[in-house]
Amino acid sequence: MVKYMCIKKLFLAITTAATLVLSACSVTERQRAVEAQTVETYRTSYSGEKHNIVVGKFSNRSTYMRGLFSDGYDRLGEQAKTVLKTHLQQTNRFYLLDRANMQELATEAGFSGEAQSIDGAKYAIVGGVTEFGRRNSGDKQFFGIFGSGKTQLAYTKVMLNVVDVKSTKVIYSAVGAGEFTLSSRQVAGFGTSAGYDATLNGKVLDLAIREAVNNLVAGLENNEWSLE
User: Fold this and answer.
1) 26-48 pLDDT, tens per residue?
2) CB neighbours of 123 closer than 8 A, spacing ≥ 6?
């Protein structure tokens, strides 16, 4: 009987150990949709007149990613320009013209046997990212024994100018700025520890551009400038 109990306990121990090993080797997959932030006038009704606009030069004018070892390609500026186009279109106040894919669009029109009829823009949106920076900061309590913290901060400012294509006059300007922080803290070895998060760049850029576009539209609706 004693021998039987020992064998039973041994069997249970082996089974438990095998279960733990299999659990450690299992793969867990999770997915969820994240709601994207939009401009304030997104999906709002608008009965006013719309005019054709085009995004002109919009680049990174800050010192970020423009150092001695830069390859010269304006990644931040291109990213910002894409975000700007999306938010301008979402305002439902303009007809946004695409000038970045002219060759591809002409090719597609040729495939369908139709001649293009390209509209001209009345206004151009120009500007750029004027400030961009990252900063990491941290603290330790009693040399880290009682805990430590880390904060990552990203900040940016963008400026938009509305230019009359015919007269080349700058008829309105808008500014947007944003700041994103990511904080983590460990106490006595427990808690979260966040590594470098590159997505903060895109998040803060989107926030600042969205704010600038909101200010642009607010000026339009407050009659500070006009599309007439």
Assistant:
1) 567 888 888 889 999 999 998 88
2) 51, 52, 53, 54, 162, 163, 164, 165, 171, 227
Q: Are 61 and 129 in contact (CB under 8 A)?
A: yes
Of 181, 174, 82, give the one whose Cα is nearest residue 127: 174
3-class SS letters over the chain: CHHHHHHHHHHHHHHHHHHHHHHHHCCCCCCCCCCCCCCCCCCCCCCCCCEEEEEEEEEECCCCCCCCCCCCCCHHHHHHHHHHHHHHHHCCCEEEECCCCHHHHHHHHHHHCCCCCCCCCCEEEEEEEEEEEEEEEEEEECCCCCEEEEEEEEEEEEEEEEEECCCCCEEEEEEEEEEEEEEEEEECCEECCCCCCCHHHHHHHHHHHHHHHHHHHHHHHCCCCCCC
Q: What is the pLDDT of residue 34?
A: 86
Residue 144 vs residue 199, higher pLDDT: 199
CB 86 within 8 A of CB 41: no
pLDDT number for residue 208: 97
**CA–CA separation, 69 and 79 (whole Å):** 20
